[in-house]
Fold each of these.
Amino acid sequence: MTETKLNFNRRGLIAAAAGGAAALAAPAVLRGAAQAAAGPITLLNVSYDPTRELYKAINAAFIRYWKSRTGQDLVINQSHGGSGAQARSVIDGLEADVVTLALAYDIDAIADRGLITPNWQSRLPDNSTPYTSTIVFLVRKGNPQHIRDWGDLIKPGVQVITANPKTSGGARWNLLAAYSWALKQPGGNANTAKAYIANLYKHVPVLDSGSRGSTTTFAERGIGDVLLAWENEAYLSQAEFPGKFDIVFPSISVLAEPPVAVVDKNVDKHGTRAVSEAYLNFLYSPLAQDIIAQNHYRARNGQTIAKYEANFPKLQLTSVDADFGGWRKAQATFFADGGLFDQIYKPS
Amino acid sequence: MALTLSLPRLREPSVLPGFWPALGFTVAYLSLIVLIPLAALIARPWEHGLADFWRTVTDSRVLAALRLSFGAAFIASLVNLVMGLITAWALVRYDFPGRRLLDAMVDVPFALPTAVAGIALATLYAPNGWIGALLAPLGVKVAYTPLGVLVALIAVGLPFIVRSVQPVLQDLDAEIEEAALTLGAGRWRRIRTVVLPAVAPALVTGFSLAFARAVGEYGSVIFIAGNMPLRSEIAPLLIVIKLSQFDYAGAAAVGLAMLVLSFAALLVINIGQALLLRRGR
């Protein structure tokens, strides 16, 4: 469910082809001139599925902040979709100034194509992740299936809604959370964890391509007993359908770290490096951290964490870097072609 | 079509002027719109070698997706062949209140963004939807099953049949049928020997259009299919999935497999149509 994307480059090309040779240089020149002159600066933030509301609030705050500091008007466009698909759009030429994706692997993929410098993750504090989140259960009101923890998801008759981990960043976090729970059970090892995952996905009737799609399937189509959801998505659904859902916090989940990065090639081309870097640094400011916590993401800032402590139950969280050897390794083991997710769908 | 191609001759012995501009325009336009993109698709899957290409397209998941895409497209087009003919027949031969409105509505699937059609169908056929709720007690699940894929493909394919057959039916003089009637032909025989032979080529055209559209259909299907590997995952979705993993070669390999299969299917249909036309003469 990708929203309309503003692809200036491609649009420029089409205009050039239609207008003939005389018009060839015009769109590029015009855009450069518009950026340099007094007109508003335009930033494009390419993000993953569930952050629409978060960045709407952040953008409004940053536009005010930037105006008061520099007097410049700013327009920030947002694009949302499955994290992997968004990364691919950027690789294929969507001229994002900043990317704010669901997991580091997707930004690594952009960096591998030379659009972002390889050391991007060390450029900002906390591994370039200004907030964290985790995976929780959203169940129907009153929890009729008595779902308390991961083990309850494979009870007979329980249907689980999650997105396709091949296309959805959130769904990859879901699978890793489930896997780390299975690993930590008595007698748990790689084989039992794999068996649990295979069993779990037998309880999944629909695989949407993004987390927002799964939320729709669960909340609006009424499919399934439990939705594996981003913590913020769970709260959002509760707010949107009051009295219809309960949130269940499992005993173990995963520490999801959605990172952010400036797309070096694009900001240098647009002349927007300063404002793009300021935008990402702004995410770590107390003001933005407050917005982050209000949108049910887990803040990094100590004071903000203390302020909103009651909203975020403490969970045992596994981390991809410590428990799975980093995203590149996790991607190869679990999600690449022939990885664990493919293996559990082989016909037996 | 394919059978009637003669050897290419560069100078057309036509008295009408404008051969060269017409040829230049056609070649340039087709190159930009069809040939260059196709060439790019054909060039792409080989970066990891022939063996890798073969492994990709013979993977059980890819085969299941191709089977579903082509199988469902074929069945949906067959269903539309019958229902579309009846619809076109009713719209041409009978006058009833609201006929023009109904006639216009046949085109709606053309005009509707496919995603809208898909979401509407998913909403209706989900177990809590209007139609899904009626079917659920009977144990029939449509949304999020292969049956859902079929429903979506039937919905997008219908106008192709109706619009192909309708003008032919309109041109078919009712007098011929009346003559058949006076000669003692029964109702079924009139349809079989008078109407069907006349509309058969148009039916085949409509079938191939609907089939081609259904094979490549993505937007309307993914919302209602459930997208489960090996069960309700269509081939175009597999291409999108491979792309999101940055597996461009794999995506192009599935695309090329679809292209070859579609080409083969359309070739068979066109040969069938050429035979029909020849027999009709």
Amino acid sequence: MGISDSQKMNKQSSHSAALAGLMVAAVFGLAACAWQPTLDDPDVAEQVRAPAGGEESRGLQVYPLRNPAVRELERAAEAAQAEGRLDRAESLLERAIRIESRDPELLQRMAELQLARGDWEQAEHHAMRSWELGPQVGDLCRRNWQAMAIARERSGQVIAAGQARERLGICRLEPPERF
Amino acid sequence: MTGKRRRRPPKKTSAAKRRPAGRRWWLPPLLFLSGLAIGLLGPWIWWLDREASLRFADRHLTEASRVYARPLELHDGLRLSLADLVVELEASGLRSGTTDRPGRFSRQGERLELHLPAFVFPDGPQPALRAALSLRAGRVELEGDAASLRLPPAEIGRLLPLDDRIRTPVALGDFPALLVTGVQAVEDRRFKHHHGVDPRGLLRAFRANLRHGRVVQGGSTITQQLVKNLFLTPERNLLRKFNEAIMAVSLELRFSKSAILEAWLNEVYLGQDAARAIHGFGGASEYYFGQPVQALDPGQIALLVGMVRGASWYHPLRNPERARQRRNQVLAIFHETGLIDAATRARYANAGLGLNPGLLSGGSQYAAFMDLVGRQLRADYRDRDLRGRGLRIFTTLAPSAQRQAERALASGLAEVEREPDSLQGALVLLEPQGGEVRALVGDRQGGRRGFNRALDARRPVGSVIKPLTNLLALARPERFTLVTPLEDEPLTLEIAGSEPWQPVNHDHVSHGTVPLLEALAQSHNQASVRLGLEVGVDALFRLMRQLGVEPGRDVHPSAFLGAVSLTPLQVAQLYQPLAAEGYSAPVRAIREVMDAEGELVGRYPLRLKPVAEREALALLDFALRRVVTHGTARSLSGLLPSDPGVRGKTGTTNDQRDAWFVGYTADWLGVVWVGRDDNLPAGVGGARTALPVWARLFAQLPLRRVQPGWPDSLEWFWIDWPQARLADEHCPGAVAIPFVAGSRPSDLSECIERRGVWPFRR
């Protein structure tokens, strides 16, 4: 059982594809400095978090109210990750997820931590879960698909990685109109 | 002989002249004896000295591995009842009292003050700390700046070493000061000054015993007592006394006073729990008071110090009066030597013994869950590495949920059974997102050891299997939707090598053509078998294996009606991805394992895996909600104070032998089985017997409203129920049903004009 990539791309939007291309170029521009990123390259997570192409965030942004206990644990996890204590960071994020299992920001952090650990499968699954529960627009959406793109790229799913890159562009647009 | 040879005339005989002859007489034997002494005693002392230091160095080799519950993480807004919080605090070893000492909590109305003892968590140590919180309207409000407060976890059991001692080593610095000075005041006042043996102390003891005409004081120093505890057999004779003294001096020469005192505090014999001896104040404190030694009050310290003299004679559970007198005697000595003031002495001399026998050996209170922990650990560790190495095992159990689950099963069965104690049951409670087991009950009498039905009772699951067949059908949206008509009519199946099979419905009535959703909600057997035949038994078994459950080899279409024997834990595993919105996670009881040195040696982290049939799962989730609102589980609404959006499925097997109910909310997945151990017809039914037990538990759990986060690719349409025709909101009896995009029916109800139908969002 893997991910069934049911979300088919909206091919009409050449505009978004161009934007996505630009961002992919930006991501790999950063990666290029590091020669070929190694499996446990902690910079992978940085690539996900860096604003694409140095641009300001544009389009709809969603910042929901968050549980302060979760924020505290998340900050501690971030500090642990910065010190290279990835196991501790994972434990802290797990504690936060136990408090708020549907917090998309938290799930995305976990995805980024798993990228740093080189666990591509868990990185992809957490990013996907974050996207499903998240606003599906704005920065978080962009980070979701960027993490999925990198995770799929590294695990050799070339086509699926390409699809994830195309999805990146749609994050910029206004949210889809609901019927 | 010499005298004869050197015979002299009698007159010359004198004392002065005999002396040289006498000297010559005893010199050779003395030389001989000295040689013998040096030759034998030297090696003997050398051997004793070597043994003493070797055994002293290895004495910590065996220590029980401890198993902890999940730590409760308190934060603002957390739903928690006061009763559950108190259960959690007490399980964590806290006691009601003044909070100036760690390990106490006090409550005034809705406000609680806590003084948490220090604890080393797998992600780092947490010092002892004081905190306060309120519970308003069932929600936690923390005082102060911290956004969260983690309670030290309850110790729920031990994996005992294969030797026969119970011990909990504690570092010297972690013992209460009164205990450390108090034992010296009572047992060995000159401990700081002597060299292992104390002739003055011996003399004093001898005089005291003479005065009283019986043994009231032992002359042994703490070092000698340590030697006795560590190395020697209980027989009493002069040779043993000699060995003991030599070894005591040897230890004194080789080790510091504080190392010896620490070893003694951890080795001294302090009573017996059945076949196991309790050694050391750490273990004794937990055994008698259910508390860490740091949390003891002066009265409890005096009681344990008094027991050193004779742990069986002064055993506080068996001989409470004798123990009380001895405690007061010790309190008097503490007072005499200036360790406590008169007021403290008076207060504790009048107090009760403060006993609270917590974890008896092996911890039977959580026996069923410990059984699961043991099995999961044995998959990764060898038995001898698990026991006796002082591992710390962090698990997923919630003590408050466990308590509620045990009560729900016991009281639920007592209510429904016709003759007392005829029924048995099991209950599994998971946190579905991470697959963590929060409670496990394997017997209606909580904590009873023995047959663990949650893990070992393999019983036919009945209609609890049907959602899986439906899932496989719904994963083919071009062929099946929730409104696909199914025939609920009699059918006969020819089975190679056995009798033809004719499934019947529970109510012995066939219901004609019904929508798939209705067939599941009402659990119609004949329609379910017809649906099953389209997906195939092989596909059903394959799906079960994918979800981590082995269905067995008996590939018979009766499997569509649940003629598959599974344990309650396996059923929980099957439903976990459904309750977790399509992300499967292995059911686990363990989070982390640390070794005695505090290194993390094992982690069982959160692992998500999206199930391929996610849209079909979303449709199934909708159908299982319908079971509760309109189907076989509709009695649930009368049993819960408010329905947060429960999804569930009932199951009843042939001749009412087994009753099942599986139900989930956003935070919990519960599986209940009820039946008889002898597998006789039990007169039970899923909705009638298992569901009320489930509801009793869930009525006590904090429940959040279910907001499914299913894929956005589903489309909702109004349906002309029960016909597979599109309708709209205004049509009488129209029901909103989700469809996988593109799978909606094309026929239109007479109720609507042909102006087009649009999906809508929920």
